[in-house]
């Protein structure tokens, strides 16, 4: 479990996290609460996470969501380096504004990247820029976030190619609530994307996808870390 | 080819950007078919909005910015740089169908250029040395460079070819009248010069543009009940 006692990032903060699963190690990393990114009128905040899955290792990175307060300027980057025989499940999710007080990201900006390399070759590279509503209609446009206030991506890798049944299992998740999700396979990487009208929809979709995938990727049943329930 | 005769570069560019180029680009809607089927796009203004969003946030910082770098790499005859940038663009295709489209069009253009005696294209054919990193953009940039086409003209034409293909798909899917399609093309092409200028001004750490709505429309196409298009 990863603790960041201040619980939030303010202007000019920069956090770097590197996690390496060395030969044959197994690790599941999560966080006890959502990461908060406060309003940053001048310089932005940065969070960089580097995950390295060494030979024959098992790595799960399942942090709770990042919450951007209105006016936050945030750059998030997640780099995942896979060894050919590693097993990995990673998710990443963001909430724009504080839905409890009906706040949206009017001012500010999110720039979030997810780059995955397999044996040092790039196999997946996604970069999403979300301007505040005052600057762009992207958050509400169908081609953008379609009015969603939460978005999340889960990726999974295992040495054996995923097959049609794996993808089908993920397409049948019993998700309820307001939102939508899709599943695709890009080369050897399974990708689940969720957009929700609530942060709960995205959290549940990713958790259900993880539950369906864990036996298939790690060969172990999914037992939710107790800290998620607190 | 590429012998520098005045005016010839324009002829070559028109040929490269023509919808009659036999690579099969007309078979791909890039998620537009899903957006129409879902009821997200029902009229011409919604098409314009969708294509503007895709162009501004995805085509400019992705396709165009990387194609410019591919030009530089081909001009320097640096195959390492070509494969690096091409692999990077391929990694940005976030769905199974978009990635298959990129590879299919890349291989088809490699075959065509080979048949037109551009020997450098040979290694990008299916099963050949550079095939794993193949993209349509890599082969487009090869042809454009060897045919002495200026980089901004090449990027403008690539943007035009993308736009024309998307508008033709919208004409068929929404559907729109032929005249409405031409008016839309005329209007949206007005954004291309500024988009090309923006693409060429980006630094390497500003590259890339994914849109959740586009990615999900493309992924959703895999399970669409009835499909005219391959993406």
TrEMBL record, chain B:
Question: What does UniProt give as GO cellular component?
Answer: cytoplasm
Chief location: cytoplasm
Give the molecular function GO annotations. nickel cation binding
Sorted alphabetically, which keywords does the UniProt record give? Answer: Chaperone, Cytoplasm, Nickel insertion
Q: Which residues form a coiled coil?
A: none
Compartments it resides in: Cytoplasm
Cite the Pfam families for this sequence: UreF
Q: What does this protein do?
A: Required for maturation of urease via the functional incorporation of the urease nickel metallocenter.
Q: Which family does it belong to?
A: Belongs to the UreF family.
PANTHER family, sorted: UREASE ACCESSORY PROTEIN F (PTHR33620)
User: Tell me, how does this one assemble?
Assistant: UreD, UreF and UreG form a complex that acts as a GTP-hydrolysis-dependent molecular chaperone, activating the urease apoprotein by helping to assemble the nickel containing metallocenter of UreC. The UreE protein probably delivers the nickel.
Protein name (record): Urease accessory protein UreF
């Amino acid at each position: 479990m990863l603790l960041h006692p201040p619980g939030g990032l303010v202007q000019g903060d920069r956090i770097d996290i590197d996690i390496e699963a060395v030969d044959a190690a197994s690790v599941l990393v999560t966080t006890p609460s959502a990461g908060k990114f406060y309003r940053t009128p001048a310089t932005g905040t940065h969070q960089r996470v580097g995950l390295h899955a060494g030979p024959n290792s098992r790595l799960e990175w399942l942090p709770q969501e990042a919450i951007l307060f209105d006016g936050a300027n945030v750059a998030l980057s997640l780099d995942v380096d896979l060894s050919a025989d590693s097993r990995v499940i990673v998710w990443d999710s963001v909430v724009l504004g504080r839905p409890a007080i009906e706040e949206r990201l009017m001012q500010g900006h999110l720039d979030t990247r997810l780059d995955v390399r397999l044996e040092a070759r790039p196999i997946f590279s996604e970069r999403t820029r979300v301007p505040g509503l005052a600057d762009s209609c992207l958050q509400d446009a169908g081609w953008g976030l379609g009015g969603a206030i939460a978005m999340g991506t889960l990726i999974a890798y295992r040495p054996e190619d995923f097959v049609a049944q794996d993808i089908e299992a993920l397409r049948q998740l019993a998700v309820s609530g307001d939102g939508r999700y899709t599943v695709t396979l890009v080369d050897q990487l399974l990708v689940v994307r969720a957009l929700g009208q609530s942060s709960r929809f995205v959290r549940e979709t990713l958790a259900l996808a993880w539950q369906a995938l864990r036996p298939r990727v790690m060969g172990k049943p999914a037992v939710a870390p107790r800290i998620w329930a607190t | 080819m590429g012998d520098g005769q005045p005016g010839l570069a324009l002829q070559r560019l028109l040929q490269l950007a023509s919808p009659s180029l036999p690579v099969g680009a007309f078979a791909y809607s890039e998620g537009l078919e899903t957006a129409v089927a879902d009821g997200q796009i029902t009229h011409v203004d919604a098409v314009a909005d969708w294509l503007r969003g895709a162009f501004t946030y995805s085509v400019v910082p992705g396709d165009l910015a990387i194609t410019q770098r591919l030009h530089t790499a081909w001009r320097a005859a640096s195959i390492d740089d070509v494969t690096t940038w091409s692999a990077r663009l391929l990694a940005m295709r976030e769905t199974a169908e978009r990635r298959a489209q990129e590879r299919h069009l890349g291989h088809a253009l490699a075959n065509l250029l080979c048949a037109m005696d551009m020997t450098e294209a040979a290694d990008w054919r299916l099963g050949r040395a550079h095939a794993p990193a193949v993209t349509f953009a890599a082969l487009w940039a090869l042809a454009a460079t060897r045919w002495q086409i200026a980089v901004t003209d090449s990027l403008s034409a690539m943007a035009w070819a993308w736009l024309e293909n998307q508008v033709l798909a919208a004409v068929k899917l929404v559907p729109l009248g032929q005249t409405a399609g031409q008016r839309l093309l005329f209007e949206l092409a007005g954004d291309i010069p500024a988009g090309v200028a923006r693409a060429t001004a980006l630094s390497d750490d500003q590259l890339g543009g994914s849109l959740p709505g586009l990615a999900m429309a493309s992924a959703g196409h895999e399970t669409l009940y009835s499909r005219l298009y391959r993406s």
